[in-house]
Amino acid sequence: MTRQVETVAPDASLQQAAMAMEAMGVGSLPVCQGRRLIGTLTDRDIVVRGVATGRSPVEMEVRECMTEDISWAFEEEDAEEVLARMKALQVRRLAVLDKEKNLVGIVSLGDIATEPRAADLKEVGEAIAEISEPSRPHK
């Protein structure tokens, strides 16, 4: 799990968020009010919910484009539970929360695959294969 996670505030501009993503080489950022996770913002959110509306990314706030209905794992959950959730949700990363639902990190499929017990988790390869299948365009 990565514990040093960069976040973005809901009142930050889309331009600020995009610049942060570019600087870090990432395509998504957790949106936090203090330490409390309230959503996530992806580069796709910025394009589809922001730029496509014709409004200025300097004037639009993250809260206007972020995804609020997100999934997470609790830090005390074991790898098997987290992997099963990632597989069901078709995601490569999950936010990790403490008991008070504050963000404490991000766990990735790579984190699970490299943990000492990963040899027992043959599902890691299956999950990576399933999640990595290309999606089909919606028509």
From TrEMBL:
Signal peptide per UniProt: none
Pfam family, one: CBS
InterPro entries: CBS_dom, CBS_dom_sf, Diverse_CBS-Domain
Domain CBS as annotated: residue spans: 1-58, 66-123
Keywords carried by this UniProt record: CBS domain
PROSITE patterns the record matches: CBS
Annotated coiled-coil segments of the chain: none
Name assigned to this protein: CBS domain-containing protein
Naturally occurring in which organism (per UniProt): Reyranella soli
